[in-house]
Write a structure and sequence with these properties.
By secondary structure, the chain is of the alpha+beta class. It contains two helices and two strands; from the N terminus they run ααββ. A hairpin with a 1-residue loop joins strand 1 and strand 2. The chain is globular.
Length: 79
């Protein structure tokens, strides 16, 4: 996806944030807090006419952390 955004649609690499389990930086791993922080990052400084793209590829799951929690993910596409 990153390749398509940078090479086909000419998004600058610094305007792309990838959150996945392979990231060395723990702030870029797919936790609830990191996903919410990523959405805030995406929305920061948005002005009329801007193009935003949010892509989620995966499935929801339940994780046991002192209590059973469920993560719901909503996909928004802005054009």
């Amino acid at each position: 996806m990153c390749y398509a955004l940078t090479h086909k649609y000419n998004f600058p690499l610094e305007s792309i944030r990838v959150i996945n389990e392979d990231q060395a930086d723990p702030r870029l791993r797919p936790t609830r807090d990191n996903i919410i922080a990523g959405l805030h990052w995406l929305m920061r400084g948005v002005r009329a006419g801007d193009v935003l793209f949010f892509h989620y590829s995966g499935h929801g799951s339940q994780v046991h952390e002192n209590a059973l929690c469920e993560l719901s993910v909503f996909c928004f596409f802005f054009f």
